[in-house]
Amino acid sequence: MKSIVLIAASAICLATPSIVKCQVTQNWAVLAAGASPAWVSLDASGNLYTANQGSNTISKITPSGSVTQNWGVLAAGAAPAALTIDASGNVYSGNGNNKISKVTSAGVVTQSWATLANNSGTMSMTKDASGNIYTANFSNNTISKITPAGTVTAAWATLNVAAGPSSIAIDASGNLYTANLNNSTVSKITSAGVVTQAWATLASDANPWGITVSSTGIIYVANSNNNTITKITAAGVMTSVWASTGAGTGPYAIVTDASGNVYSANINNSTVQKISSAGAILQTWTLSSLATPYSIALDASGNIYTANTGNSTISKISTTPLPLELISFNATAKNGMVSVDWKTASELNTVSFNVQKSIDGIEFKTIGTVKATGKGNSSYNFNDAFAMGAADVYYRLKTTYTNEEPTYSEVAKVVTEGINSGYSIYPNPVTGNSFTVDAGNSPLPVNYIIYTSDGKAAQEGILNTKQTQVNIASLVPGIYIIRLSNGQSIKLAKHL
């Protein structure tokens, strides 16, 4: 059975974002629906791996953003929450079923490489210089140690019964530190397993989720409830409110760079913040409102990656100055089409602008290319004649350079509203291989071309009577736009 729905439409621009040195690629990598990545880690070659709690998988993403969705398929109910990677590129996942899975660099999975105690509830993992793995077990308040051979000491260190370790980090001397969510403390465990339960006591309302150790041995803690970052020196001197991330942010995951800057992924408002070594907020990047970043990683070039559990994507943020500076990027409906306009302030080594379109805001296709002047202070325009009549339409720029990776602008959204085009079809919906167009009182004849959603002509003809039957047997299921020679557009949806 085939179903066809014919809708006449006009468009109104709802969002016209202005971008200055656009640095955020919101959907740099799109995971499978429902993946819900809880962790992201990088290997020595710059490949990213995500622990997908929702789909019981581990995804692999190359430095160019190519995704292998099911690179490692874990057992049903595994619910991987954390990852760590050894020097050989083997990936280890801490799973909600009290197992540690191992995935070789070739993607070979050992489901139960190590088995922890029942009710462990692993939330975080790290490893030492010898390849030993340590897991922070939230549910039973223990730290497990697993040797490179897979030998498990399930309760290698036991924390306070009220601790609830949510995150674990290690310093250069092999000392471990845990952020304890339930009692707002930081525990320290020496390489010999000696525990100082409340090595640091945070504010009672801190509820710390993330912890990291800088290259100089300074410990930073992300306090999700009171929106602060705590700093603790190696000697245990604490600055409880070293940085304030702002009301409603919810700092959750945290990482540092070689210069001592701190980066916080905030789950409550889906932002990432850069904080100087002095505790000043230097920059705030805004992700999609649905992102909910659970994990953050930093590569050797200073690029930031977040695992967004809310919309199953990976965002990439470049912290280096971009050769292109966009002043504005707008998409507006006019004269039966969508006009995409942008202005630049600088275009160092900029080659071209690829205008990309999407009907869902996630999967984008290039619909046209505009050559860059290379001079800056330039204005550009691209007209999309095939947008009218579609539902929500999204646009972005993919900019290419001579010596840089492509960058992407923010997304501009255009939405359509129904208008009286003077044309109708019946029956609606239509079954079979054809539909009838009723021209009403509109002038005839009028030519039509049916385009695919990416602008390729699929069929053409003429409406020369008040009621014209159009055969669409040759069209495969999909979304089409009918362009009439009088300038009007109609959306055509064909289903099996």
Automatic annotation (TrEMBL):
One of its GO terms (molecular function) is zinc ion binding. Residues 425-491 form the Secretion system C-terminal sorting domain. NCBIfam families: Por_Secre_tail (TIGR04183). This is T9SS type A sorting domain-containing protein. It comes from Taibaiella lutea.
